[in-house]
């Protein structure tokens, strides 16, 4: 299982695409770390995702608000679900309660959520915003 940035993930908004590229690189490193049972990289990635969610989702939500994007609330709810997933992972890591099965599930969830979110919600949002510009 490998994930790489490609043109199909582009939204056409430079700052968003740059942040997505970095996210895809980190998710791929996370996938490899899970496959190699590298708990240090797993923990580093979860820590990275905490900061990433604040920075990136804030940037996306600001763009949506400034452009009066009608799908803002639904999109923000999707971001909240990701934040909750990362929070639960961090909490489990801190409490040393994360099993191998849970780590594999988290890998699959992060990977599928990220690609699906970019390909659907972010693309729809940026297409509608780009039409206004």
Secondary structure elements and pairings:
Blueprint: H1 14-35, H2 39-66, H3 72-94, H4 100-132
Can you describe this structure in just a few lines?
By secondary structure, the protein is mainly alpha-helical. It has helices at 14-35, 39-66, 72-94, 100-132.
CATH architecture: Up-down Bundle
CATH-assigned fold name: Four Helix Bundle (Hemerythrin (Met), subunit A)
End-to-end span in angstroms?
A: 37 Å
**pLDDT averaged over residues:** 90
Let me know the number of strands. 0
- Summed up, the domain count is 1
Using only C-alpha atoms, the radius of gyration works out to 15 Å
Helix content: over 70%
Low-confidence stretches: none
Q: Return the structural class.
A: mainly alpha
CATH class membership: Mainly Alpha
Keywords: Iron, Metal-binding
Protein name: Hemerythrin-like domain-containing protein
GO molecular function: metal ion binding
Family: Belongs to the hemerythrin family.
């Amino acid at each position: 299982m490998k994930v790489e940035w490609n043109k199909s993930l582009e939204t056409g908004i430079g700052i968003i695409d740059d942040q997505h590229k970095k996210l895809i690189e980190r998710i791929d490193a996370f996938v490899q770390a899970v496959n190699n049972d590298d708990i240090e990289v797993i923990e580093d990635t979860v820590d990275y995702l905490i900061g990433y969610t604040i920075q990136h989702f804030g940037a996306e939500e600001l763009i949506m608000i400034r452009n009066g994007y009608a799908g803002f609330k639904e999109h923000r709810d999707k971001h909240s679900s990701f934040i909750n997933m990362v929070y639960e992972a961090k909490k489990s890591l801190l409490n040393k309660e994360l099993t191998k099965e849970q780590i594999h599930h988290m890998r699959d969830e992060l990977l599928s959520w990220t690609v699906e979110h970019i390909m659907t919600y972010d693309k729809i949002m940026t297409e509608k915003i780009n039409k206004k510009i």
